[in-house]
């Protein structure tokens, strides 16, 4: 009697090894971004994945209840982006929002009413005309008064395209005199004393705070509320947004700032935390275009300041060797970072 043959059910092919979900994440991301299942499977095949495995993984993703739930969340996000797009279109209809105004010696009440509470940038002059720092701060003055002080800076930035995202590996310390020597001869983006280094530099540079004084639009909390910045011509801070309102102030040299309104965030290619995939060369100042936001442009020099509203994306370039400060101690609520929950989530 012939033995019966057991028919074994053919197991479906899988595109990714067990435990390796990177391809499945990529498939789900592509589907949520609007790529059709058929074209996605064809693309995977063209990239070298076996045809049966590619089609199986795409079909599996399409049928997944998890993707269905994510699709609903994606629709909510799209509705939010549509709402932001409405504000963007309305701003484009307002000629006053096509530029950053310049106001001299602004009245604090007007500043808060027309700019802080309206989330609008403004270039401000006359805020610090009374500061001794405008006359005293120079590389020679720093050498004479603080040359041996050990300061912290961000270094070796040009060796790492993610120098701003991964700041900690670039922290280094040096005598201030060594930094000023480099500032006299070097240009570029390789080193920079930034707000991120203020934990050390607040004490190391303490004698300088006698050269600053209260600013009319800010709240005075302590003798020195601001953050110190100093770098060569050519420093770059790539497109990002802050989690607070900021006042950027120049003492020496000029900075160019390009700005994108908070409501244009969906166009800013947010890749991680508060950083953008756009670089300065490809997202220049100009009007909005399909897939591109309106970009405003502003240059500030010695004694001038720029109010950077919370959520506004900005790109900062040092046009000269620069010394400046930034401040967050406004009179009204500015603790918005407390409610920010996206650290490490994207």
From TrEMBL:
Gene3D superfamilies: Cupin (2.60.120.650). SUPFAM superfamilies: Clavaminate synthase-like. Residues 195-346 form the JmjC domain. PROSITE patterns: JMJC (PS51184). It comes from the Bacteria. InterPro entries: Cupin_8 (IPR041667), JmjC_dom (IPR003347). Pfam families: Cupin_8. This is JmjC domain-containing protein.
């Amino acid at each position: 009697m012939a033995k019966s043959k057991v028919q074994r059910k053919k197991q479906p092919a899988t595109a990714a090894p067990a435990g390796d979900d990177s391809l499945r994440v990529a498939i789900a991301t592509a589907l949520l971004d609007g790529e059709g299942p058929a074209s996605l499977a064809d693309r995977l095949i063209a990239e070298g994945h076996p045809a049966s495995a590619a089609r199986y993984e795409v079909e599996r993703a399409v049928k997944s209840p998890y993707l269905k739930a994510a699709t609903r969340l994606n629709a909510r996000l799209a509705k939010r982006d549509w709402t932001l797009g409405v504000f963007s279109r309305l701003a484009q209809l307002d000629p006053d929002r096509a530029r950053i105004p310049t106001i001299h010696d602004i009245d604090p009440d007007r500043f808060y009413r027309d700019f802080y509470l309206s989330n609008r940038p403004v270039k401000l002059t006359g805020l610090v005309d009374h500061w001794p720092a405008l006359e005293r701060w120079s590389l020679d003055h720093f050498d004479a008064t603080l040359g041996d002080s050990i300061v912290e800076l961000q270094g070796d930035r040009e060796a790492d395209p993610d120098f701003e995202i991964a700041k900690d590996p670039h922290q280094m310390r040096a005598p201030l005199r060594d930094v000023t020597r480099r500032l006299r001869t070097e240009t570029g983006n390789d080193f920079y004393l930034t707000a991120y280094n203020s934990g050390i530099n607040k004490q190391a540079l303490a004698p300088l705070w006698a050269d600053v004084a209260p600013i009319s639009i800010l709240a005075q909390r302590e003798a020195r509320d601001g953050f110190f910045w100093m770098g060569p011509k050519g420093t770059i801070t790539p497109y990002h947004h802050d989690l607070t309102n900021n006042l950027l102030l120049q003492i020496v040299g000029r900075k160019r700032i390009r700005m994108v309104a908070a409501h244009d965030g969906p166009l800013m290619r947010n890749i991680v935390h508060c950083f953008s995939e756009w670089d300065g060369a490809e997202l220049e100042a100009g009007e909005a275009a399909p897939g591109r936001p309106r970009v405003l442009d502003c240059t500030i020099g010695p004694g001038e300041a720029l109010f950077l509203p919370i959520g506004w994306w900005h790109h900062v370039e040092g046009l000269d060797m620069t010394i400046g400060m930034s401040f967050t101690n406004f009179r009204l609520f500015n603790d918005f970072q407390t409610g920010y929950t996206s650290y490490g989530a994207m």
